[in-house]
């Protein structure tokens, strides 16, 4: 799937790529509505009906990923709520073996995530994956989400990678579309970002269920 002899830089997403997206799906679809309902004296169904259009309106924007934004908008301490269920944060199968192999290679490995720094810190504390990366970049540091062309330009300016020998592995099709538009040559998606949901059918990009598929030649 990847000719590793052609790759000098590896860009890795976090949620849904290295980490099980089940944590975030449960958090936003169930745990936040539960606490919003308690705060407002609503049923959970009524809370979900109020929250769904709010969430939908921010998809693809930096605010969607910003814990400070949602804490203010919902009058809930989102970072504290995430910490409450941090035991559910999990690494996807064979990710650590893949990262160990990458670490032994000469390639530059950069975590590029839309996650807010508070969420990023919590997840690194829980998983201890941070030592595998040469750098960790949050879109909140850049001021633009990965869906935006400006993110990739800023990343290239700071990380100094060449499009033709860089691979991005990301579960978000919108992010992969953006990276393709920018010119990143090697793109891989994740067919099972949430361990509790069925595999997704992805036709636009090569897709893996777990990282064993990428270890050949590494």
Automatic annotation (TrEMBL):
One of its GO terms (molecular function) is phosphoglycolate phosphatase activity. The keyword Glycoprotein does not apply. InterPro entries: HAD-like_hydrolase_sf (IPR050155), HAD-like_sf (IPR036412), HAD-SF_hydro_IA (IPR006439), HAD_2 (IPR041492), HAD_sf (IPR023214). It comes from the Bacteria. Keywords: Hydrolase. NCBIfam families: HAD-SF-IA-v3, PRK14988.1. This is Putative hydrolase.
